[in-house]
Design brief:
globular; alpha+beta; 7-stranded antiparallel β-sheet; Protein Transport Mog1p, Chain A
């Protein structure tokens, strides 16, 4: 049974399963690269719209978005509500950065779900899978338990201008799985930097999860989550799926 998170509208949800996965993805030692992943669950407000000032600012900066945008026409309450929730979540994810200038054109719909899954699998989760057999399977089980991947709308954050948290990265992705029925947004993001670049920032060797003793301790956590997986390209696991027992 899925929890109803309506008691905390428009806020991050403290979910222990996702927190455990996110901790394992916090800083992954991939040799010459450091990969930092993150999962967050956000409960949406269903009634919030742009303020009059925000609408005026949007009309000044991107007047065409009122009639058409990646999120839909911003004259509609639905598109405004989606933009407000996405920008609210962004401001919680990147508290040290100004997210007030984010516009609808900084987001891109992702109708090709297998492609999104492949990106997450190959660029993030599969790196941990090499050390902790079964992680990839349990990752998607946890995701599917929180949001219905099959019916979610997925958007990617692809800023039109510089965005400091991802500047100078080797690669990055920021996906938003929007489950309208449950009123939730699941964020899955990753930033990959060169080892030298990562050490020049906020990372430290003590954060690295896939090396030395930290791999051993993380393995114990992973082993308590489930058995090994063998997912093919574009696949994700479903809770209760018969294929999970193969």
């Amino acid at each position: 049974m899925h929890r109803a998170y309506a008691e905390h509208p428009g806020k991050l949800v403290q979910d222990p399963d996702l927190a455990q996965l996110s901790a394992m993805l916090k800083a992954i030692d991939a040799g010459d690269r450091i990969i930092k992943g993150r999962l967050e669950l956000f409960t949406c407000s269903r009634r919030r719209k742009l303020t009059a000032r925000q609408q005026q600012d949007l009309q000044r900066r991107e007047p065409q978005s009122l009639a058409d945008s990646p999120l839909g026409p911003l004259v509609s309450d639905t598109a405004q509500n989606l933009l407000v929730n996405l920008t609210s979540l962004m401001s919680l994810l990147f508290v040290d950065y100004d997210c007030s200038t984010i516009t609808p054109n900084d987001f891109e719909p992702c109708p090709d779900k297998p492609s999104v899954v492949n990106t997450i699998n190959h660029s993030l989760a599969a790196v941990v899978e090499r050390v902790h057999r079964g992680f990839l399977n349990e990752f998607w089980k946890a995701v599917q338990y929180k949001v219905d991947v099959a019916t979610c709308d997925i958007y990617a954050f692809r800023p039109q201008s510089s965005f400091e948290p991802t500047d100078n990265s080797l690669m990055s992705f920021h996906y938003f799985f929007i489950d309208v029925t449950r009123g939730l947004i699941l964020f899955i993001g990753s930033v990959t930097r060169s080892r030298g670049s990562a050490r020049g920032g906020m990372d430290s060797d003590s954060d690295l999860m896939i090396s030395g003793d930290s791999a051993s301790s993380a393995s114990k956590r992973s082993s308590s989550m489930g058995s090994s997986s063998n997912l093919r390209d574009g696949e994700y696991a479903f809770v209760g799926d018969d294929a999970m027992s193969d």
